[in-house]
């Protein structure tokens, strides 16, 4: 039924694009789905006869709703307990070849996008992730095209300066490292875990004050390895399962208890070693691990 409706309803036809836009703008599955619900209501109330380009109308609607949500979310995130990390999202292998460019949804990039101003983030997402022209983006945001060009240049430079320089592009190497880390962590082998960590490794854990997590970044192989193995050794995690999973287009680790996701680990690779470990364990931010909005 839904597939049949998608042939006639532009909202359903472009839902994947709209979700991808909102998710990249906000970094959370829950907020992105809320935005889509609000956009759907606006679409139902719109004068369809006056909408010349439904796709552009819907992208504009989602972008501006996301901008409003992002602006209000900034104050909330400033009061967040511990490090704030984006919600991980399960993806499937074909996403890496998708026209929407899965590299623009990586956890590392989403973290960097948090440092952009809301309008800069909107311009970057629309330009770099979806390839909209400066003129199109100017129309979406009601800003002069020259201004949008300046914002795009500034945002791209900001991201390039802050995005980690890694060798994540080699899937085979990443899988090998993941398997070695999985074996070492599951076996409680401190030395083996430390050997896999980069000398300047940093780990963040997002518990949001809901579950036990480090409230400050952890630095160095010894500190990170001991903290990681200490958490895994807790009695309540005796039945914890660790398994490889494609998170935000990159191979990471999924943690489950009784088949229910309780956490996820994403990371970057530098010279074959793990760096920038991101542990997401906030139960309110695991929704994207039980569904896959971006197939």
UniProtKB/TrEMBL annotation:
Pfam families: Sigma70_r2 (PF04542), Sigma70_r4_2 (PF08281). Keywords: Sigma factor, Transcription, Transcription regulation. Residues 13-74 form the RNA polymerase sigma-70 region domain. One of its GO terms (molecular function) is sigma factor activity. One of its GO terms (biological process) is DNA-templated transcription initiation. It comes from the Bacteria. Residues 108-158 form the RNA polymerase sigma factor 70 region 4 type domain. InterPro entries: ECF_Sigma-70_Domain, NTF2-like_dom_sf, RNA_pol_sigma-70_dom, RNA_pol_sigma-70_ECF, RNA_pol_sigma70_r2, RNA_pol_sigma70_r4_t2, RNA_pol_sigma_r2, RNA_pol_sigma_r3/r4-like. NCBIfam families: PRK09636.1 (NF007214), sigma70-ECF (TIGR02937), SigX4 (TIGR02957). Interacts transiently with the RNA polymerase catalytic core formed by RpoA, RpoB, RpoC and RpoZ (2 alpha, 1 beta, 1 beta' and 1 omega subunit) to form the RNA polymerase holoenzyme that can initiate transcription. Belongs to the sigma-70 factor family. ECF subfamily. This is RNA polymerase sigma-70 factor. The lineage of its organism: Bacteria, Bacillati, Actinomycetota, Actinomycetes, Kitasatosporales.
């Amino acid at each position: 039924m839904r597939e049949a409706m998608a042939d006639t309803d532009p909202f359903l036809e472009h839902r994947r694009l709209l979700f991808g836009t909102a998710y990249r703008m906000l970094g959370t599955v829950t907020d992105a789905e809320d935005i889509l619900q609000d956009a759907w209501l606006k679409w139902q109330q719109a004068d369809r006869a006056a909408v010349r380009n439904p796709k552009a109308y819907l992208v504009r609607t989602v972008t501006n709703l996301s901008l409003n949500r992002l602006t209000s979310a900034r104050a909330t995130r400033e009061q967040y307990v511990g490090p704030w990390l984006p919600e991980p999202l399960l993806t499937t292998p074909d996403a890496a070849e998708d026209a929407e460019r899965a590299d623009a949804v990586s956890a590392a990039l989403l973290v960097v996008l948090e440092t952009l101003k809301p309008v800069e983030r909107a311009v970057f997402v629309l330009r770099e992730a979806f390839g909209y022209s400066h003129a199109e983006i100017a129309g979406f945001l009601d800003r002069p095209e020259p201004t949008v060009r300046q914002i795009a240049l500034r945002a791209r430079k900001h991201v390039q300066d802050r995005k980690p320089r890694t060798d994540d592009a080699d899937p085979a190497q990443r899988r090998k490292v993941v398997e070695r880390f999985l074996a070492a962590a599951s076996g409680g082998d401190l030395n083996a875990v430390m050997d896999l960590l980069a000398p300047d490794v940093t780990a963040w854990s997002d518990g949001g004050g809901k579950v036990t997590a480090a409230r400050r970044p952890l630095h160095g192989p010894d500190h990170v390895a001991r903290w990681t193995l200490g958490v895994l050794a807790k009695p309540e995690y005796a039945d914890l399962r660790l398994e490889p999973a494609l998170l935000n287009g990159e191979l990471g680790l999924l943690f489950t208890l009784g088949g229910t996701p309780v956490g996820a680990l994403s990371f970057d690779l530098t010279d074959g070693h793990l760096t920038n470990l991101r542990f997401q364990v906030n139960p309110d931010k695991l929704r994207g691990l039980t569904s896959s909005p971006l197939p």
